[in-house]
Design brief:
Elements lengths: L1 H37 L21 H7 L4 H34 L7 H8 L1 H4 L2 H11 L6 H9 L14 H26 L4 H9 L4 H29 L3 H7 L10 H11 L3 H34 L1
Helix pairs in contact: 2-13, 3-8, 3-10, 6-11, 8-10, 10-13, 12-13
Length: 307
């Protein structure tokens, strides 16, 4: 009897995890393995119906992808640079805005609950509805952005194109930060609840101002949360597909050509599924290396700080 009870106790966690493991296997692992296999095949529109019988190309797709002197490699390298700049700026701005808003709303004042709900609105909206709204706002002739900047404030000499040319990067960054920063705000606001208020009271008695309290108490206490938050924001931004696709369509401008939309164009617009799969595998490897390096660096920093 005791053996059966112990067996049930040991097996129960695995049984509870089994549906999630099966779902992960079907949704992520199996398609990932198929994508890796496709990256070694010469797979175009003609072979996609029978992709298993497509000619074996070995590392040919990878050679084309990393040949930066060729057009395919050069455009991929440009897209990689754009994605890195976009991700760094998005993560930095989201963290600054989210942290500043969370710290500001820690104080009790009338209307604090309303402001918290208002700040979380972009995160609560469906992605497609939010981005489509911004697409209308960025229209050159009828958009509200140009109406305010050009007609009302006179800050621009002419009505700029926000969804074309170099300004498309700014438009993409604005939309991404607007819909992502409430997540940082929510995480930091929750983390601030665990900081004892006695620390702030003691610091105030010692004559420490608000800025010094934030530097000496708030930011060090938020370090463990920020380490995870920054990594999550980076991975989200680097893999963001919905925002550029809804904002620009299938063909994003060169200045806003993120890797996600670039791989989509290579796979489903030009029908080079083998090359697109190779790009996806290289992107996966890059993110795995970055994640492992970041976790290793943060764990070492945490150990040195504890010592």
């Amino acid at each position: 009897m005791r053996g059966r009870t112990r067996l049930r106790r040991v097996a129960l966690p695995y049984l509870l995890l089994l549906p999630a493991l099966l779902l992960e296997l079907l949704v992520h692992l199996v398609p990932m393995v198929i994508g890796i296999v496709m990256s070694f095949k010469e797979l175009t529109q003609l072979q996609i119906a029978h992709w298993g019988a497509a000619p074996w190309k070995a590392l040919g797709n990878y050679r084309v992808t990393v040949d930066f002197d060729a057009p395919a490699g050069a455009t991929l390298l440009h897209s990689f640079a754009v994605t890195c700049a976009f991700s760094v700026l998005t993560v930095g701005l989201c963290w600054v805005l989210g942290t500043a808003a969370a710290i500001f709303l820690q104080e009790n004042f009338r209307g604090r609950g309303l402001l918290r709900a208002l700040f979380l609105t972009p995160y609560a909206l469906p992605v497609y509805a939010a981005v489509i709204t911004w697409a209308f706002l960025f229209q050159r002739d009828i958009g509200l952005v140009n109406h305010v900047l050009h007609d009302q404030l006179g800050l621009t000499g002419d009505r700029p194109f926000w969804l074309l040319g170099d300004n498309s990067f700014v438009a993409l960054l604005v939309v991404s930060v607007w819909k992502t920063w409430p997540f940082a705000f929510l995480v930091v606001m929750a983390a601030l609840q665990s900081i004892p208020k006695d620390l702030y009271e003691a610091a105030a008695l010692d004559g420490a101002g608000i800025v010094r309290q934030i530097r000496r108490i708030t930011l060090p206490s938020l370090r463990p949360i920020n380490q995870v938050l920054l990594l999550v924001l980076f991975l989200w931004s680097f893999n963001d597909f919905n925002t550029p696709y809804v904002l620009f369509g299938k063909a994003a401008p060169e200045a806003a050509d993120l890797l996600s939309i670039h791989i989509y164009q290579s796979s489903f617009v030009t029908w080079n599924f083998g090359t697109g799969s190779a790009m996806s595998v290289l992107l996966l490897l890059f993110l795995l290396v970055v994640t492992a390096g970041y976790l290793l660096a943060t764990s070492r920093g945490r150990k040195s700080a504890d010592a």
